[in-house]
Amino acid sequence: MSTLSSAITASASALNAERTRIEVAVSNMANAESTRSADGGPYRRRDVLLSSDPVASFDSALGQASATGVKVAGIVQDMTPFRKNYEPTHPDADQDGFVSLPNIDSSEEMVDMLGAARAYQANLAAIGLIKEMVAKALELGK
């Protein structure tokens, strides 16, 4: 049973990581046209770094196979250059009339959100299957 609980814990950690990926992608999309941020320049695209996270269980203490979850290792700024748009009347235009716009590609953000949403759904399904397996095992034990 502890192996099943570590599998649920691993899937739950993935749910949290995928939720963070979706939140960051939504933030990027919301700021796709923000020419001025708190630091004075245009908004910089953010990206989520994920890393593996071993799930502690009784089985892993005995040296048996155990589940490995995922955790958010950090949220970093994408340092690719800003997009430039010629708008000499814009208040944030430089001396040449160009406005620096965030380094965000809307289609890339949509793909990231879709991938995160599908991974979230897959982990929800995995948790549901484990719950069904436990319920069937309890039924058989009657």
Structural class: alpha+beta
SS strand fraction: 15-25%
Q: What's the β-strand tally? A: 4
Query: What is the total domain count?
Result: 1
Helical stretch tally: 3
Distance between the termini: 17 Å
Shape: elongated
Oligomer: single chain
Major beta sheet, strand line-up = 1-2
Describe the structure.
- The chain has one domain (2-140).
- Helix content is 48%, strand content 19%.
- It contains three helices and four strands.
- A two-stranded antiparallel sheet has the order 1-2. Strands 3-4 form a two-stranded antiparallel ribbon.
- The chain is elongated.
- The model has no long low-confidence stretch (mean pLDDT 88).
List the helices and strands and how they pair.
Elements: H1 2-30, E1 46-54, H2 58-61, E2 68-77, E3 83-86, E4 98-101, H3 106-140
Antiparallel strand pairs: 1-2, 3-4
Helix pairs in contact: 1-3
Give a brief description.
The chain has 142 residues and is an alpha+beta fold. It has one domain.
Offer a few descriptive terms.
142 residues; alpha+beta; 3 helices; 48% helix; 19% strand
